[in-house]
């Protein structure tokens, strides 16, 4: 069995290249709307759900580091976020799922903003 860290590294390389290919293939809309990012996030989330179901029902989890964490994590980390939210919901924790979704989105937007402000201050 391949080392899980090596699986993640190899899968991440493939996923990142795939994401870049989508960005190159899909031009930004006239309004500047990030069509490629949305497409990657939706496709990655769908593939994460499909892959998780197939691993649980058919394949086992031996290659989860390669496929889920590596390929799909390199393609979009939004897929892992979506799976975590869906798992909380399916476990009968809709309140926790809602807090996770809203908290993640808000905190990540605040974090990006803080990083931009700090980064601009450092390199301005």
From TrEMBL:
It is a multi-pass membrane protein. It comes from Paracoccus alcaliphilus. It catalyses: fluoride(in) = fluoride(out). One of its GO terms (biological process) is cellular detoxification of fluoride. One of its GO terms (molecular function) is metal ion binding. Na(+) is not transported, but it plays an essential structural role and its presence is essential for fluoride channel function. Belongs to the fluoride channel Fluc/FEX (TC 1.A.43) family. Pfam families: CRCB (PF02537). The chain crosses the membrane at residues 35-57, 64-83, 95-118. GO terms for cellular component: plasma membrane. It is found in: Cell membrane. The keyword Ribonucleoprotein does not apply. Keywords: Cell inner membrane, Cell membrane, Ion channel, Ion transport, Membrane, Metal-binding, Sodium, Transmembrane, Transmembrane helix, Transport. Na(+) binds at residues 73, 76. Fluoride-specific ion channel. Important for reducing fluoride concentration in the cell, thus reducing its toxicity. HAMAP family: FluC. It comes from the Bacteria. Signal peptide: none annotated. This is Fluoride-specific ion channel FluC.
């Amino acid at each position: 069995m391949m080392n899980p860290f090596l699986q993640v590294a190899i899968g991440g390389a493939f996923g990142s290249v795939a994401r870049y290919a989508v960005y190159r293939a899909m031009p930004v809309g006239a309004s500047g709307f990030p069509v490629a990012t949305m497409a990657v996030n939706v496709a990655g989330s769908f593939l994460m759900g499909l892959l998780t179901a197939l691993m649980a029902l058919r394949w086992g989890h031996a290659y989860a580091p390669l496929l889920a964490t590596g390929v799909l994590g390199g393609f979009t980390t939004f897929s892992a976020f979506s799976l975590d939210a869906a798992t909380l919901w399916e476990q009968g924790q809709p309140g926790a799922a809602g807090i996770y979704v809203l908290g993640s989105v808000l905190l990540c937007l605040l974090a990006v903003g803080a990083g931009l402000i700090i980064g601009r201050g450092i390199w301005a």
